[in-house]
Amino acid sequence: MFGHGLEVWAAQGDRERIDAADLSYLARLQDYLVAVLVVAVLVLVFRARWTVLTQVLAATLAGALLMLAQHYWDRSHPSPTGTASKGAASRYGENNPFRIPGEMPVPKRLWESGTWDPKSVRAALLEVGFQEERFGPKGEWLG
Q1: What is the pLDDT of residues 34-78, one digit of tens each?
Q2: Confidence (pTM)
Q3: Residue 135's beta-bridge partner residues?
Q4: Which end of the chain is more exposed for a tag (fewer CB within 10 A), N or C?
Q5: For position 87, what pLDDT does the model report?
């Protein structure tokens, strides 16, 4: 535990190094718990009652430490909720309007009426406010 504290202190706020130290600490604590449980089972096999009691208490303490460490890790690294509220992600609707499904009355009306040729679609879109751009043979913009 002292070594973990020193690793976090040495990271000087570098989140990646702190996370690596936390994961390393959890792995060491888990290994310690397994070792204590193995020793407790061996002692139980040889029927040393007082030793079994101390080993079980040590295993319980190690398990509690492991649970606390895992709880700390889970609280400091919440899973993403799928909704963003800050920064550029909050502007998703403004930046990606083409990805948001919406009502398209002009194409729907044309499709239902069966007039789906380019001339009819162009006329219907011009009626609702779209503007047509024209380009010359060399790609120059004509307006």
Answers
A1: 887 787 777 777 776 677 777 778 778 877 877 887 777 777 766
A2: 0.35
A3: 141
A4: C
A5: 57
Distance CA 11, CA 5 (A): 10
d(Cα 105, Cα 111) in Å, to the nearest integer? 10
Rounded Cα distance between 33 and 82, Å, is 35
C-alpha 68/C-alpha 60 separation (Å) is 12
**CA distance readout (Å), 12 to 3, 5, 15:** 15, 11, 9
Contact residues for 109 (Cβ-Cβ < 8 A; gap 6+): 124
Dig out the tokens for 115 from the structure.
Answer: 């007039």
AA letter at 121: V
What is the DSSP track for 39-105?
Answer: HHHHHHHTT-HHHHHHHHHHHHHHHHHHHHHHHHHHHHSPPP-S---SGGGGGHHHH-GGGS----H
5: confidence class by pLDDT, cuts 50, 70, 90: confident
pLDDT of residue 86: 56
Question: Which among 13, 60, 67 is positioned nearest to 36, based on CA atoms?
Answer: 60
